[in-house]
Design brief:
Helices cover 15% and strands 18% of the residues. It is α+β, with helices and mostly antiparallel strands. The chain has a single domain, classed as Alpha-Beta Plaits (2-Layer Sandwich), CATH 3.30.70. The N and C termini lie far apart (28 Å). The relative contact order is 0.31.
């Protein structure tokens, strides 16, 4: 397994912060689901930091463990709905 660094930006308006919570959808939850769907693996990202509800981020650097050596940007569909809550 390899650890892959991601660089992400997001509009946190519709999220209950970074870390998975029972009270609503979070950025971490959406990333886990989207990357799992993309790679066919059970992905759990590890955040480099956390944000509160409604907070935006640019250049956040979570990591993930994967059997793949890397994720190619060409393999990510250009579909904004894939990343939506």
């Amino acid at each position: 397994m390899r650890r892959i660094k991601l660089t992400v930006a997001y509009d946190g308006t519709d999220y209950c912060g970074w870390q998975i919570q029972k009270n609503g959808i979070t950025v971490e939850e959406v990333l886990n689901k989207a990357l799992s769907r993309l790679t066919g693996e059970n992905i759990t990202v590890t955040g480099a930091s956390r944000t509160d509800a409604g907070v935006h981020a640019q250049g956040s650097t979570p990591t993930q463990r994967s059997r793949r050596s890397a994720l190619s940007m060409r393999s990510i569909p250009c579909c904004p709905r894939m990343w939506s809550p």
